[in-house]
Fold each of these.
Amino acid sequence: MKIKLLSAILLSSIGIASAQTVVTIGTGTSSGTSSPIATFYNSSATESIYTSDEVGLRGTITNLAFNKASGSSSVEPFVQIYLKSTSQSALSERYTIGGGFADYVLVYEGDLPNNDTAGWMELALQNSYNFTGQNLSLLVIGSTCIEQGRPQFRFTTTSGNKMCAGYTDGRIGCDGDNPWTQDATMAAIWERPNIKLTFGTLANETFSKNNGIVVFPSIGNIKITSATANLNVVEVYDLQGRQLFVSKNISANEFNIATLPQTGSVLLIKVTDNEGRLTSKKIVY
């Protein structure tokens, strides 16, 4: 009974909502057949970077969509889609992904929707991705050639830096036999595909400044600081009201939690400072 009551209090206090949050990146109306994959080749790939400012949120990405401009074919190309966080904000003229491929997470493997002549072609990720910050890197690998009516997708020409790069097997038509590997040479281009990201859980509100308290979740760590009084007690609860962590008598203005598993769940952080002031903060971690 106690757990149920606390759960109700937590749900009420953090205002959990079931609505999804959608972020659209790219406003360009030009289109082409080179990205996110080049379907006039048997094998192709693109790597694109979207900045943290463009994404604007932290949380769990559940859906991804590309904006189709035209194309009469209804063939759905087979793709593998990977995501990772990166500090990069630009791509070299020619490079290989190499060992950096190990940092990618496979979020989708299957057909890329192509069920209309135009519009957003959306897919639900098989593995939701917990985006915690930095810039977002998107790798799309294609292995389907379409003879006629290839889909064209809208892109935006980036300014200042090339933020997309592509690979093809070098044989226009459907007889190429040189699949992409992490050691394949990628060539940077200006045209970056427009995308739409859906966050299925609450995005992280990265900072809480109530009573001078700041809560900052990152990969493998939750950092809590106080700009006024020293911290006294830090508690962490899940949405069922279960206490997952507690530390008392801290007597410092900074505290780190590095022992909690990162599962993409909504957590409630309760912080009490040495002056008895309580601050509550929800995060996705």
Amino acid sequence: MLLAADLAAFRRDVEEAEDVIAMSLNRISGGDVVRGAWGTEVRVGQTFWGFAEQAYPGGPRTSTFLAGDLEQELSEAIASRVNRLSVIDRSAAQDWVDAHPEFATMIGLIDPQTATKMYAGMAAESTRAVVDGEEEAWGTGPLAQLFAVAPFAIGTLNGAPATARDEFNRETLRRVLADSTSTEEQRTAAEQTQKGLERAQESSPDGTVVQLVALELPDDGGERDMRAAISVGDLDTARHVGVMIPGMDSSVAVSMDGLVGNAVNMQDAHVRIGNAEATATVVWMGFESPGADPLSQEFFAEEHLAKKGAPLLVRFLNGVDVANPAAETTVHAHSYTTRLATYALGSSQFGGAEVDHLVMYGSPGIAESVRTVDDLVGVPPDEVYSTKSVGDQLEIPLDDVSGVPGYVDDMSSTGDEGQAGLAEVGEQWSDVRGEDNVDPNDASFWAGREPNVFESDGVLGHSADRTKGSDGYWSRGSDSIKDGARITAGRGNEVR
């Protein structure tokens, strides 16, 4: 009976949300002309649907957008569901969670501001206690219940404290590793994540805080559907936060252990440049990365994966900002994810994030909607930086795209120059597809400003990691990673 009542309440939540959306739809008309509630034409972009709101008749009109309404309604409905799961009978809550495994992937849609308030309210009603003679855990209240039946509800909650997300995500990780019914994809991703956590701890100075700040391991997901983010350093108290986003052919299941090494290297770079302020570096693998098979259709990254990943990055960054508003945040994007990051920081429907600094490494071209630095409305134009190694600027003569596979196979097999020229090949491949992606290292991108383009001495190719004959952009002690640390610390004026 409790489960039936619970489902009925959820159905009412959905129906109420649908009613609100339907009311919004009734106020707009199709085509390029949008009319407000009183029939007056509202000037909006041709690619948007919207309606005009007035606080009172005759008052100023504010254009809003249906997508925003839908997002807000979803946020509130999902938050309501989490609140309900935290207080109803525990067995009924567990039954509902078991019947709706897809719900775990929806928590990230909750608005970070809402999430912060929701978590604070739950924490005030919960108590911690020593469990089984070991360390403290949530013993009573809403957080104790969610820890028992749905740890993902806090672990993936953008806007919740990183310490809480870490505790709940580690419980999810423990369960996946202990569950004999976990899929091969889940287990592989979980094992890589566990190795990443261990590597971060073992490779960092004693006392370093390591936090698992995102984890999604859907039981119906493939290798590239797994998501995770690990912070080296305390994300709740850091004065400077760096978010590193790896390029193509990255995944939690294959790469997480190695990717964490990049974050460790960045933390080490802060020490090398003498930055004594508290820092945290996150490796964010919260998106689907394109594969690197030169014969596949997505090689060198079709635009849709960047557009798909950008809103996920927006939510994560907004969550970091809400949870630690005193921190300065820097996005470090390598290769393909310079495209994803510029969508997230641009003014298109895929944007909405705000950061203090952006650093792009080895870009094969950025978001199509971003033509100049001024289009990056989510970051100050003077705090945008880019670098491309000498080897990465090598232009490979291609009569047609059939030359790409052989070139990539050759460079991948030798590795001596870290796949030199791949950024240029990526630009050519985009041109073949009819895409127009600006190179942030070109003077035109800077719109008359002095370009913030710095050299990557010692990097001969495209790789983020060190190769046999070359530093990588993010390899330990490289000039480029030290410059990245300087920019993160607010010392961009020192970058060459």
Amino acid sequence: MSGASRFGQQPSAAKLFAGSSNQPITAQPLVIKNQKTGETWVTIGSGRYLNSADLDKTKFTTQTWYGLRDTGSTITSRSQLKQRKLLSTGAASGVPVEP
């Protein structure tokens, strides 16, 4: 890509975080910018939720959604992360979503 990105800087790619082999990242990361602070965040998730079989608690492993603040440094350990919990429920495209 040539020219400046919509964030005002030349785009670049570098490893930000390495998940674990039992929680592969399954979708394209989403990059967002906090309009109040100017911080860049990258959101990613592991696992899937494609159909009702994915809700079978006897077969599923814990999956994770990450919101990573991109400071230009690699996050080298999960110990550098802070756990947060989703506290509300709702619907996405008419499908119920629960934490």
Amino acid sequence: MTKEEIGAVLKKLRLNCGMTQQQVADALSRKQQVIGHWETGYAQPDADTLFTLCDLYGASIDEAFGFKKEKASAVDDESPLTEEEEKAAMKLYNAFLEAGIIQPGGGLTDRQVEFFDGLSLMINAVFGENEGAD
């Protein structure tokens, strides 16, 4: 999904709620121009803001973007992580621990699972279109 497609979904959700960009901006303590940039694909909200927007619009990430967990688990390449990928994954894990997003040895809450699903969606939107470009 491109930034423009994400923006179009955000605009559609906002319009379906009958809200103006200014009303959304006020609810998020942002400038109206920022909302406009998100909706045109000029910029993207971070994952946490994306969840806040969906909550504001009364939609889940799954509903808004048609994201299905089956898609996330359908992996074509089942090869093990490279050492570099493993190190990067551990850095992310430690950063999430330090930020208090996850707890050591604990399971994930539904909200955390939704957060990581949304994060995956955004990463795929930004980097997925460049796959195979090497």
